[in-house]
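User: I need a structural model of Lysine 2,3-aminomutase from Streptomyces glebosus for a docking pre-check later this week. Nothing fancy, just the predicted structure tokens so I can convert them on my end. Input:
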Amino acid sequence: MPPIPSETHPAALPLTTAAEVPEDQWNDWRWHMRKRINTVEKAQKWIRTTPAEEKAIAESAGKYRWSLTPYYASLMDPDDPLCPVRQQAVPSLGELMEYHGTDVDPVGDMFFRKTNRVVHKYPDRVIMLITEACPVYCRHCTRKFHTTDVDGTYFEKNEGEDFTADLQYIADHPEIRDVLLTGGDPLSYMDGKLEEIISGLRAIPSVEIIRIGSRFPVLLPQRITTELCEMLARYHPVWLNTHFNHPKEITPESEQAIDRLLRHGIPVGNQTVLLRGVNDEVDTMRKLMTELLRIRVRPYYLYHCDNVTGVAHFMTSVEKGWEIMEGLQGHITGFGVPQYVLTTRLGKIPMSKPSYEQVPEGLLLRNYKGQEMVVDQDVYPVTEPSADHGDGG
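Assistant: Understood. Predicted structure tokens for Lysine 2,3-aminomutase:
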């Protein structure tokens, strides 16, 4: 039996709950940003930190940033260090361990960077890394070197550089029709600064779609204000991709934020990362995907966790990803099944196992139950007929 904490130890003190915070403060995203938790002492107002967590926080100081909003802290199990929300936000010793083949930029953002912020990896679309800041520094971030590493950045110069060269690059490349604002989290900027960037993009005739990658609907849904949505709606078509990883993150507050976006004509997609110990069970992933559909968020990608320095302890095997996908396909609504991908310098590589194979008779098909049938080559031809194939005339 663990020792009973003394009355003076933080573990013995009552924890803060959302209900104790005045409603006007709790509903103000700026209050949460001002009150972000970034020390053990602040964390102990919300959770009972373990010695391992306290050691990880101490040893990562000067190496990795960490902070979390009171809202996100309120979703954590205060007594369970394996809580799926807690694991995503509180530093762990796994971040400081060395793993084979890790890289600070495995997807090639710096390799494909064309200006201070523009990364041009695909023919008709680019990303703009507009900030390093986030409301919560997720411990599994693919861009951990850019957002969380104290000495790291993907910027060619610095975040303070103006956007002239970035916008000019996009204007000079009319093949670019889709721009994704990311970072960091673009919604870390105030509405005025964000509008300045978006209006600059909308002034470029060849830009058809503006997308925003933001975890604010998950980490601090109070940020999704009516004023923000009204501003975004002035620049349609605007899409938002967010990042729910576990059903615990879907709350009345996040549901209201999603509803507000949708009512202003902003479609919302979700990109989940497969994380060891967080969502690597079929039942958890099914629950997440069906809950996303319930709040009208379209599952988009299931990312295999990248082998990023400081993140590799979250990686599963690809086989685990296949197991998850087989547990989704056919078991839930088709458009609730995300595409399982591995992101590399070659791009996003689809990783789902095929449900068919070519055999001499034609195609061997396999359904979600594992049942098989063969369809004849004459009924469903696999190959196109040859050029000299006649029609009998």
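Before docking, keep this in mind: The radius of gyration is 23 Å.
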